[in-house]
Design goal:
Blueprint: E1 2-6, E2 12-15, H1 21-29, H2 33-38, E3 42-46, E4 50-55, H3 61-70, E5 76-80, E6 82-83, E7 86-87, E8 94-96
Parallel strand pairs: 4-5
Antiparallel strand pairs: 1-2, 1-3, 3-4, 5-8, 6-7
Amino acid sequence: MSGCLITKTGKIIECKAGQTHNTVCWDVLNTLLSDFLKSGGIRVKVYIDEAAIEGFDFPTPKQRYKINTILRINDIFKLITSFRGQWDVKTSFNRPIRRIKNVS
């Protein structure tokens, strides 16, 4: 499993194998993962055949562009969003990554 972090300014921080997102947030971003997600950052975890994209809200246009440059066009992703601090698993879904531009 590999992945990356996308900051609210669009900066991409890659996480190598064996390196957790919590460690990256603590050492590189100097923040907690929960605070990072709430501040507009996005976590992307890439698996063999799918990727999980997690954030406090829907990705911004800049973040969507960055995500599309990271993931292959045929990858399947799960988008998990939060509304007023409550995670809503019912909004999780699988779609081709190319349709992330249609998320609003």
